[in-house]
Amino acid sequence: MDDVRVVLELALGLLPEEDLNVLTKAVTIHEFKAGSIICREGELEPVFYIIQEGKVAFTKKMDKGEQFLGLKGRGEFFGELGVIDRAPRAATVHAISDCDLLGIHETTLDTILTRNPSVARAIMRGIIRSVRDTDQITIAELQLKNDELGRTLNNLRTAQAELLRRERMKRDLEIAAQVHQSILPLAFPEVTNFEFAAIARPAREIGGDLYDVISIDADNVGIVMADASGKSVQAAIYMAIVRALFLSQAHAHLSTVEIAHRVHELLLRVSTAEMFVTAFYANLNHRTRQMSYVRGGHDRPVYFHANSGQTSLLDPPGRFLGLLPNLIVEEHWLTFEPGDVLVCYSDGATDAVRTGDGQLYGLERLRDIVTREGHQPAKALASLIVEDIDRFRAGEEQPDDLTLLVTKAL
Length: 410
Prior knowledge:
The chain is α+β, with helices and mostly antiparallel strands. The protein has eleven helices and 18 strands. It has a five-stranded antiparallel beta sheet. A five-stranded antiparallel beta sheet has the order 10-11-12-13-16, covered by helices on one side. Helix 2 (about 15-25) packs antiparallel against helix 4 (about 105-115), helix 7 crosses helix 8 (about 255-270) and helix 10 runs antiparallel to helix 11 (about 380-395). It is globular, with a radius of gyration of 23 Å. The mean pLDDT is about 85.
């Protein structure tokens, strides 16, 4: 059973002990002999597999027979799209060696996804890796065909077409970067009893994070922190849609739960891609200092209590918006005391990697810096957090967009 826990965390990342215990009890172990077929393309099966031991190969039917797609081994997983989308298997999976697989039924996986956004991110990274592997195979085949077609004129035409494509892509990236920058606020509303500060640093030319403080009426503002799946042009455009939806719904004077449901339903209608967004949304009455909030699968905000000098996490249950039906969110409330601070962040903060040992910055280090520096003004605190993350990284490449939104009660 210890090895099961190790493999689960190898595949899905560090999990809360409660979720890890649920998964450990819920998994079923499947044994397959070398040469056997684990799943067949086109079949329906509500099970998500993690490889405990052995190696598997993936093939897909093409016009000229079966195409090899790739290999996976211990700690890797497959079947996630079939379970999330309830779609037929996209490929046939073969046991290359004797294999032990951990099976997780879709109902159990859905529960874990609802409670823990890190699992959703791990699965999305697995999907992205699979797409990249398939792309690499396709690119290799195209290159071989190109070599067979000959040299000179055809090569020149190919080079010219590639140059034009790159120029168009460069222009598209510039436009998308402008779109993303335009949706981030240049300044925050000046309200009674509170101050706000934010920092957004994309991992690439274009980010997929969103923050905003929306002026609703004389007494209320809406606080938004969101992170779109994917990166680049698609994520920037998707996030522009998300911001427009939150803006339109915030002014309808609805509860935070109703707003989350409306944004979710509208995203399901307008988005045809396999995209989703994690979000934290709050309604803050800056005169009474009362705040209601929901968390749609987003990282748990850190709350600094000025009176005690301690931090806590805002963690109402909730699932990401815009992909799966039947949204689950729950509204919670709190009242700010003078000096209290709310720190919302994207996973680029906690997932920062240290040079050398590959250790993550993590939530506990974020809580430590907020505990130490929570007395600082909002702008100073945001800068100190980013500086602490950069010192921890020690030059390692930023893995994901790093975004912070700090709300401080005066």
